[in-house]
Design goal:
This protein is of the alpha+beta class and 604 residues long. Helix content is 40%, strand content 15%. The chain contains 26 helices and 19 strands. Strand 1 and strand 2 form a beta hairpin. Helix 8 crosses helix 9. It is globular and about 80 Å long.
Length: 604
């Protein structure tokens, strides 16, 4: 619709109808008798839309809107067009019904672009996650609803708090409304969409292996037939394998053939039986793959996770969580286990970090920043882990959290090992009901008693108290208060890192050269702040004098420093950053400075 130029009333916009029909031209019959399409979950979004309209249609849309991230849901092209139309005052408002994937990271960026523009759009109503009534295939389809208006306004954010009888003629959905400024992540209050990744968390987390070939998976019996236990060295390449169901339910007991990083000739010469197994069961499928690297390196996983392997190297165990899961739990896996692509993994063997990740503070953060698939939360490492500011407590408090983390992992593994009917999902289903004070069924009571769920609950409560103390916060904060504090801490840590202070979580792995440098007793950040009242020197113009001045300034810095921060020690500040960087690189080439892998410089 558009506004009447004289009366201001909303009237049908025929040009908009024609334009929209042109968008839908390849399959207009999908939306019969529609004057203005505002959304249709079975088709608007992701793979389903591409399937209906074809890859060429999708590629054409991305060709027109190159600024829309490739990982964004297809519906964001419609959302972007609607927002653009409203912001240019060709319409007063727009409303869209989409899949709830609109809240995911890449789609969220499209929304943020319009909300943060100089002439902004505001979300005046949003429902981030709502059931789609009477789904034809009975699937748990979830939708989101948005209403956008030009200007800077507060909006009504509605969240589902109860739902029942969805596939009946009388569905019951209860919504809770909150009013305020709605952010791109569909929250009011702390703007978690503004949080950026921290250097302190780099290199430590990754999804697991993506096989691209079911033939890599073998049973223990098949592995023995291929020579496991007899052929020297094969035990390093046929290993236990775990996926999400293995962790949420019970392990299948399967193994996987992992030949990374061997060359084809090495595999064929050293492990001929296993080579032939993979050649017969994986290569035919890979030969038809569109990606050249998959075809040519058929004996290796499609995505062997080169970035994850260094983080796990030398560890006896590592932490993992199921990417899409009803409950967010973390556990240790033995370092010899290969994790599936649907597991998110962390290069920590220290139970202190298991305690931090398992705490209510971290889980509240993940539920707010992550997205959902149907009704199950998704843990995305770039959103949930990379920006997460870990606490920096005393050694005594770290040790207390470490012991609780070990207790948590040992308790769950013990009860699961003793009772074959128990699963991790079952334990946490009962735990949630116990926390809510709901009456347990007879079957749930059996799980409660066999799984010692009361003990599990107590460990989690002790852990939550200890982690809250590590942050210096009260233990009874609301989820909203936790998010506000974490967002503020994320911004604080980001500023620290700009000043050169990085609280590495595993410094010996993430920054080995920096870890080898003896740290001064005083706070590192203070080293980068000029004495109050002291005048900054100017960077000379002649090149020889510039080199001498930069080398002398660097010599007074007792820890690695970025070129920008060194430039700020001169009177010209940021304006000479490029020159300082050039000189530092030159000094590195002649051996008078050292450059770390992360771009920091240190005097030799």
């Amino acid at each position: 619709y558009k506004l009447h130029p004289i009366t201001g009333e909303e009237i049908p916009d025929e040009e908009a109808k024609i334009e929209l029909r042109s968008y839908l031209n390849p399959r207009p019959a999908i939306w019969p008798q529609a004057d203005f399409i505002v959304g249709n979950p079975p088709f608007i979004g992701g793979k389903d839309m591409r399937h209906e309209l074809g890859d060429g249609y999708a590629e054409a849309c991305w060709g027109v809107r190159k600024y829309i991230p490739g990982g964004a849901d297809f519906v964001m092209h419609f959302w972007d067009k609607a927002a653009e139309t409203v912001r240019t005052k060709k319409a007063r408002r727009f409303g869209l019904i989409t899949t709830n994937s609109i809240t995911q990271n890449f789609s969220r960026r499209v929304i943020a672009r319009h909300l943060s523009a100089r002439k902004p759009l505001s979300l005046v109503m949003a429902v981030p996650d709502h059931p789609w009534m009477k789904s034809a295939d009975k699937a748990a389809v979830r939708i989101a609803m948005t209403v956008g208006e030009f200007g800077d306004f507060d909006g009504a954010l509605l969240r589902v708090v109860a739902e029942a009888d969805l596939n009946s003629d009388s569905p019951k959905v209860t919504l809770k409304e909150r009013t305020g400024k709605i952010h791109a992540d569909f929250t009011i209050g702390a703007d978690i969409s503004n949080c950026g990744s921290l250097h302190a968390n780099e290199k430590l987390s990754s999804r697991g292996m993506s096989l691209h070939g079911a033939g890599f998976i073998v049973t223990p019996r098949e592995a023995a037939g291929l020579g496991l236990g007899k052929v020297p060295g094969l035990d390093k390449h046929i290993l236990q394998y775990r996926n999400g169901k293995d962790l949420a339910a019970r392990p299948r007991g399967v193994m996987v053939i992992d030949f990374y990083p061997l060359k084809e000739a090495e595999v064929r010469n050293n492990f001929p039986a296993a080579y032939q197994w993979v050649m017969d069961r994986v290569k035919p499928e890979r030969d038809n793959n569109n990606r050249q690297s998959y075809r040519e390196n058929w004996w290796i996983f499609g995505e062997p996770r080169k970035e994850l392997r260094p983080a796990l190297d030398g560890l006896t165990r590592f932490i993992t969580t199921v990417e899409t899961s009803k409950h967010r739990f973390f556990q240790f896996l033995d370092a010899s286990v290969r994790p599936d692509n649907r597991l998110v993994n962390f290069g920590f063997e220290d139970a202190y970090f298991l305690g931090i990740l398992s705490s209510r503070i971290h889980v509240s953060w993940t539920l707010a920043l992550g997205s959902t698939l149907e009704d199950r939360p998704i843990y995305t490492k770039t959103l949930c882990f990379d920006p997460f500011p870990c606490p920096d407590p005393s050694d005594d408090l770290k040790d207390r959290i470490r012991k609780l983390g070990d207790q948590l992992d040992a308790h769950r593994k013990s009860v699961l090992g003793l009772h074959a009917q128990l699963t991790m999902t079952g334990l946490y289903n009962v735990l949630e009901k116990a926390r809510a004070g709901e009456k347990l069924t007879e079957a749930e009571t059996d799980i409660y008693e066999a799984g010692l769920v009361g003990v599990l609950r107590q460990i989690h409560e002790d852990l939550d108290k200890a982690v809250a103390e590590a942050y210096g916060w009260p233990v009874d904060l609301s989820d909203e208060e936790i998010l506000e504090r974490l967002v503020a801490l994320d911004h604080e840590r980001a500023e620290e890192e700009k000043q050169g202070k990085i609280r590495w979580l595993r410094p010996e792995f993430q920054a080995p050269k920096e870890a080898a440098v003896k740290q001064p007793e005083q706070i590192e950040a203070d080293l980068l702040v000029p004495v109050k009242g002291a005048k900054k020197p100017s960077l000379p113009t002649p090149l020889p004098e510039q080199v001498a001045a930069i080398r002398a300034m660097l010599a007074n810095v007792e820890k690695p420093i970025m070129p920008l921060e060194l430039a700020r020690r001169f009177k010209q500040g940021k304006r000479v950053e490029k020159k300082v960087d050039e000189v530092l690189r030159t000094l590195t080439l002649i051996g008078q400075t050292e450059k770390t892998d992360d771009g920091y410089f240190l005097a030799q």
